[in-house]
Specification:
The protein has 168 residues and is of the alpha+beta class. It has one domain: Aminopeptidase (3-Layer(aba) Sandwich), CATH 3.40.630.30. 27% of the residues lie in helices and 30% in strands. It has an eight-stranded mixed sheet, with helices on both faces. Helix 1 packs across helix 2. The longest helix has 15 residues.
């Protein structure tokens, strides 16, 4: 994957560094806790280790949005296991709640799309928590649609969305 570094309106978007995994995990926790009404379970996964692994994966990329020297947003994507080479899966996309409605998500999403296009991706897929209406509205406003190939299962807490990566 390409190393990414671009500045948009005082927001720096760049590839995450392995040493930032604890800060990335903390941002992830703050963002996720907003759509779990009872809070996140304490016995959940070790997100620091998972983010460290995601940052180091040679087949994936983690972008971070930095404003005033602090992480404001994160995005993690790669080719899904067993998926076609022209498809990318957006595994994580979070904006720190203190930066909502400040353009961070839009700029980070734009940077993701630019990376996908540069890497020859034609389609992106993701799973969004069924109770996360804010994220669903964000994705819909950017052209993501329900993935008819993956209708929601009765016991699934996620919606499956797809995005057609625009050409040049």
């Amino acid at each position: 994957m390409n190393a990414t570094r671009r500045t948009v309106d005082s927001l720096l978007i760049r590839t995450a560094l392995a040493a930032e995994a604890p800060d990335v995990a903390a941002l992830h926790r703050r963002a996720r806790s907003t759509y779990y009404p009872d809070g996140l379970p304490e016995d959940g996964p070790d997100w620091r280790a998972r983010w460290q692994e995601a940052i180091r994966r040679p087949d994936g990329q983690v972008l971070c949005a930095v404003r005033d020297g602090r992480l404001a947003g994160i995005a993690s994507f790669r080719t899904p296991d067993g998926g076609p080479a022209d498809t990318v899966k957006l595994f994580q996309f979070h904006v720190d709640p203190g930066h909502w409605r400040a353009g961070v998500g839009t700029a980070l999403h734009t940077a993701c799309v630019e990376e996908w296009r540069a890497n020859g991706r034609r389609e992106a897929v993701l799973e969004v928590h069924a109770g996360n209406r804010r994220a669903q509205a964000f994705y819909a406003a950017r052209g993501w649609t329900p993935d008819a190939r993956r209708p929601p299962a009765e016991d699934d807490h996620h919606l499956h969305l797809r995005f057609l990566v625009p050409g040049e």
